[in-house]
Amino acid sequence: MAGVRTTGTTPQHEAGANGDRGRTTIAGTVVAKIAGMAARDVSGVYALGAGMSRALGAVRERLTGATGGADQGVAVEVGERQAAVDLDVIVEYGVSIPDLATGVRRNVIGAVENMCGLEVTEVNIAVDDLHLPGDEAAEPQEARVR
């Protein structure tokens, strides 16, 4: 699940000038989804989310058929002009973690700054797990009889 922490008085970022033509606000959940999608686009990222959030997501998926949210494993802190992003990442085996982290940071910063107009002050990455080849086979199979 996304953890959206905000500073200031509102959980939304006001982008652009607030003049006589109107006001634009960007919710923290939007920033979290953009960051999550940008992180997943990097080769070597298997998934986002720590063990517990992934387990809850898997249960939700089995019960409702809904797939995991774009903001799973992402927490953001959004201020008036800046944002900070925290990611929980599961890395594919064999990938250079420092190189992967550099690529994820570049992608997330570029996406959030381009799409939201917010300055990204930091992207903190916690590598929570390593995906090994053949791990999919160890996951429980869906029952054949309902």
Automatic annotation (TrEMBL):
Region feature (Disordered): 1-22
Listed name of the protein: Asp23/Gls24 family envelope stress response protein
UniProt cross-references to InterPro entries, sorted A to Z: Asp23 (IPR005531)
Family: Belongs to the asp23 family.
Pfam families xref list: Asp23 (PF03780)
Biased composition (Polar residues): 1-12
Organism name: Sphaerisporangium corydalis
Signal peptide bounds: none
